[in-house]
Write a structure and sequence with these properties.
The protein is an alpha/beta fold. It folds into three domains: about 200 residues, Isopropylmalate Dehydrogenase, CATH 3.40.718; about 35 residues, no CATH class; about 100 residues, Nucleotidyltransferase, domain 5. Helix content is about 40%, strand content about 15%. The chain has twelve helices and twelve strands. A ten-stranded mixed β-sheet has the order 2-1-3-12-11-4-5-10-8-9, with helices on both faces. A two-stranded antiparallel sheet has the order 6-7. Strand 8, helix 7 and strand 9 form a beta-alpha-beta unit. It is globular. It binds 1,4-dihydronicotinamide adenine dinucleotide and magnesium ion. 1,4-dihydronicotinamide adenine dinucleotide (NAI) binds next to loops.
Length: about 375
Amino acid sequence: MSKYKIAWLPGDGIGKDVMDATKIVLDAVKLDAEYIHGDIGWEFWCKEGDAFPQRTVDLLKNVDAAMFGAITSKPVKAAESELVPALKGKGLVYRSPIVRMRQLFDLYTCLRPCKGYAGNPLNFKEGIDIVVFRENTEDLYAGVEFNPVPQELADVLAKISKPFAPFSDLPLNQFAISCKVNTQKGSERIVRAAFDFARKNKRKKVTVVHKANVVRATDGLFFEAAKKVAKEFPEIQMDDANVDAICMWLLKNPYNYDVLVAPNLYGDIISDLAAQMVGGLGFGCSGNIGEKLAVFEPSHGSAPKYAGQYKVNPIATILAAKMMLDWLGETEKATRIERATASVIKDGRVRTYDMGGTSSTLDMANAIAQHLAD
Ligand code: NAI
Ligand code: MG
């Protein structure tokens, strides 16, 4: 029997290409694992009306970790299942499998390391090393949204919220409401995850990102929770920044930042900004981490125009696999993968199109595997 059971979820489009490449690297590092394929993505929505079938949910209940490629998701209106012949008349609503997975398995930490490897022609500046902790289950992603707004809600808001009053005269279909929901528990646990990481990895500072001067209730709660948790980690410096300001400061002086922690939406935005500074979509990797399960993925999507061409950069997914090994406690193998990837980047002979080269997805994986063997 293998030491680990890993759910293997390639998904759609280039998800398959980058996962094939990642398997080459995991095999080269000789991880003692059984990889179990799971169905996920647009194909299964079209065939079965469910992009994240129950059998895949069950699979995730019985594995040590999961690797996920990417899925194609389209903006789908309530009646979209009418557009898919096999689903006509069923009135199904498409829901993003990854958002569902995060909520079902309470994968509350979204961990996004943004490290610039020496010699990457796409580096904004050399030597950037920022780690973003994004809350992954609540905030504006809570899914509490109204369009049109129900009369009962408009009535209550008009009564209890003074600033809301001017809108209450509008017809109900002329405005929409998305609720930003941040809990004490949700805020404390993501901040604690960031500080724990800083402690374990000898990082010096955690910066809390918010907009508490304007969004007083929710971001105020998040910031207060952060200050409370910070007291448990006296050896680590805490500071804070408004989300708008940090977008400027990150570009101006990325070396001032170490670990960042933010509510869901701000975390999504600043992690894309930070990822672009260290190479962009081909380098952005991500871990969705809960107490029992963690799912690792590249930050990019399924890039349908390149699907099956083995042209895109697999490094984001290979670094996601490295994160998975760290999470499993296989730190020696994780470090070897990172070193081999860094060597191939520095060496510069094998580069995919985004790095200005002509190498294929599998050339890149094989070059990294070769370094592992050396
Ligand atoms: P995308 O990330 O799939 O691709 C945008 C462009 O970025 C590509 O056309 C390509 O030029 C480049 N790119 C992406 N990955 C790359 C890689 N590994 N190496 C080199 N270049 C790369 O975003 P897009 O086109 O907006 O979305 C396509 C589909 O993916 C949509 O259906 C979207 O909903 C979905 N998506 C899924 C995500 C997920 O599965 N977690 C995340 C983001 C988008
Ligand atoms: Mg994003």
